[in-house]
Design goal:
Length: 441
Amino acid sequence: NTSIYQEFSAELSDIEIITDIDRVTKLSLDYYHFSPILQSQLNDKKANLVVRPTTEADVIRVAKAGVNYKIPLTVRGAGTGNYGQCIPLEAGIILDLSKMNQIKWLKPGIACVEPGVKMAAFDKQAREIGWELRMAPSTYRTATIGGFIGGGSVGMGSMNYGQIKDRGNLHRVRLVTMEEQPQILELTGDDVQQVIHGYGTTGIITELEIPLAPAYPWQEIIVVFDDFMTAAQFGQALSDSAGIVKKLVSIHSAPIPSYFTALQPYLTQGKHCALLMVSEYDVAPLKDLVTEYGGTFTYSKTAAEAAKGTSLLEFTWNHTTLHARNIDPSFTYLQTFYFTLERVEKMYQHFGDEIAIHLEFLKAGGKAVPGGLQLFRFTTEERLQEIIEYHEANGAFIANPHVYTIEDGGDKQIDKDKVAFKQKIDPYGLLNPGKMRGFTL
Ligand code: FAD
């Protein structure tokens, strides 16, 4: 085995290769530890080495050598995934694409980028021409665009544009295959679905063409409510207010606000809060809506003021879980499509203090619906399963963050098209082995 890696490294000696054990260990992991189950399953997984190319030509050479030596290859962007997406189950090499970070071109409404471009860095440039990413996770500052396509799903902006997998949110990808003679494929139209949330099992993305959204100066706002369901109804009403331009509607039941250490001056013990991003031009109509629902404005920063400190984004989506875990590491979470407020209320009443509900509104099937990343202290796997089953029995959809295969986390069924595509482009099953349950050699 050692000699294979020596030969592989010698062949690619002009590309950056990391062999230092501490760095390789670090670059083999992501944020899988948000799940106590994944933590015990994945914490000893480690690659043999990390390769960090800067060009597509070098990616092709790495793929070719990988196939030649039959070495597993796991692609990595920034390594901020939550389900061990970029953790190599069968060792091998980590292909770190963070240095392929060029914006190839940028036009009003659309851009072409390399996969390692960081999302916030991209927006900084795009905003100069009045545009920005349609959606981004709360790891916006560190995550790469390729990693978001390969392992993410939703985020700020999903309020307007839905999930990445919704038709139109990715226009084109360029892929390197894992064959003896690696090919370059260009996928457009519905074919881009092969790589969306594919965990790098269906090819190595080397270029993406992504549609953009008009950039507004986003005002960051906190509103406090006495009653959780009123806060949730306010969230729905704001999401449904066609005239108010927004990109983040995040609602937190008590005691979650108490976990936001840096925001304590703006929050009230025992109360519930909304963290919002709306266009600076729409603050007045928003205030009227807040009054209608009996909320209290406690924090309001213009985009320029917000840019000087930590954005409220970094308290929402799965950053909420991060803050809770900083207070008590036994906290874990679920990802839930509630679809309706009636269902939210039913779960709120049923689980009481056991589960703290955190809602994120997003567009699904043309409507604004409440999704949730609810928090609770992990006790046993059996209890976790019961909680999931209760939600599902009541019509909620759970995207389970406690499993590492694509199928078990998402659609819960084998995607025959994706499996057939993988069989063609990765005939030896070397791309992130073990993550696509439907694929067998
Ligand atoms: P990585 O973790 O490096 O990779 C993700 C997956 O994509 C891996 O399977 C990898 O193999 C594959 N991949 C990476 N690059 C390529 C490529 N070039 N070609 C093919 N496959 C590739 N996710 C959300 O969707 N929404 C959120 O709001 C959100 N919030 C988060 C908050 C916290 C605190 C944390 C820790 C995570 C959160 N995540 C969220 C998960 C994650 O941060 C995002 O999905 C992020 O976009 C992943 O980007 P990355 O560059 O870190 O990807």
